[in-house]
Amino acid sequence: MNFEFFIAKRIIGAKSYKSSISATIIKIAILAIALGLIMMLIAIATGLGLQNKIREKVAAFNGHIQISTYDNNNSQVSINPIARDQDFYPKFKDIEGIAHVQAIANKGGVIRTEETFEGIVLKGVGSDYDWNHMKEFLREGRLPNFSGKLNAEVMISSYMANRLLISVGDKVNAFFPKEDPEKLPNQLRLEVVGIYDSGFKDFDETYVFGDIRQVQRMNRWEEDQIGSFEVFLEDFDSLEEKGAEIYLKTLSTLDAQTISDKYYHIFEWVKLFDYNVAIIIAVMILVGGINMITALLVLILEKTQMIGILKAMGSSNASIRKIFLYNASYLIAIGLFWGNLIGLGAIWLQGKYNFLKFPNPEQYYVTDIPVHITIWHVLFLNVGVLFLCILMLLLPSYIISRIAPSKAIRFA
């Protein structure tokens, strides 16, 4: 055990140290570190949780990457069909990290009841559709089943169900225009078998999930013609990389568009969360560091006699500074321990029970406040706080070099 660590340990363990005039200031400094870490952990967890949840919701309705024809169509409706028989369907063979590929076709129309009507986009899906992304949004009824014969089962949003005054089991009339506007529109008698609620109003007020064969029939497409492909990735962080790879691997007549490009405004807004979290972390570290500087200065003033004696015995200024920096590191570690215990505990409870909710969920697209944090975030945050706080303490620790042994001992 080195000399500086030994002296710091004796100071920490001394009863007089715990009952000294600096005890209250030290407790405040520890509390500041703990509260700061709690705030930083919660900021990171909620920021990442909200980012992930919004990304998941956008991907659930669109996939991570959409493959469609090149055209000037900026709507959600499928106009020009593409062949289902592609080298990458039903699975990419040359690109790793692709979780699933599914075929869809969209058709714009109107649902009409005796009381009111609503414009919709009928999202036609088939037996290859992965419902796992939509299961968590299901609120009533069941998911449609399109593995058998052509049917009229649909799943609508709770937003639309409330506006149309319909529920699970009801049958409604839907009208879809033909290419020739002078002809009567196609009419379908749809049966509501499920109601979903994603909290994403942009999608909830638009999409009705139905059988892709209904869209093919109304558009007079062949069985092997679909509107577009939705590609799901195993890792969202590889979105741009995989998007470029898929673009190069598909036919020149097809376009591959990532959801970050298609919904640019949403993902740019999501990126702002990182900036907000960085501001919170910077402010909390600054507040905690200032409190530790105050505690260190009080400790130095309180131990002036000891400093004078150590200098008289031959200890260097650097050696004595180490003693107080060891002491400060111990206090920071206590604050980090309690901060981690309380912060991670609160995050775990929120993740399990979702007791905290947004007062205005329509602005954040989620009702419950989502949380997500990894062990690496916790480790980097703790190491970063410890390092930066000690770095901030280096400058005030140089006050030790200004303490003269003769005056310090005589003062005592």
Description:
The protein has helices at residues 3-13, 15-18, 23-62, 132-135, 158-164, 201-204, 212-219, 239-249, 259-262, 264-302, 304-312, 317-353, 361-364, 375-397, 405-411; strands at residues 65-69, 82-83, 98-112, 117-125, 138-141, 153-157, 171-176, 186-196, 207-211, 225-226, 228-233, 254-258. The protein has 412 residues and is an alpha+beta fold. The chain has two domains: 3-57 and 267-411, no CATH class; 71-252, no CATH class. The strands form two sheets. Strands 1, 3, 4, 5, 6, 7, 8, 9, 11 and 12 form a ten-stranded mixed beta sheet that branches. It is elongated. The relative contact order is 0.18. The mean pLDDT is 87.
For this entry, give a set of tags:
Lipoprotein-release_system; elongated; two-stranded antiparallel sheet; 412 residues; ten-stranded mixed sheet; 51% helix; 12 strands; 15 helices; transmembrane; 2 domains; alpha+beta; single chain; MacB_PCD
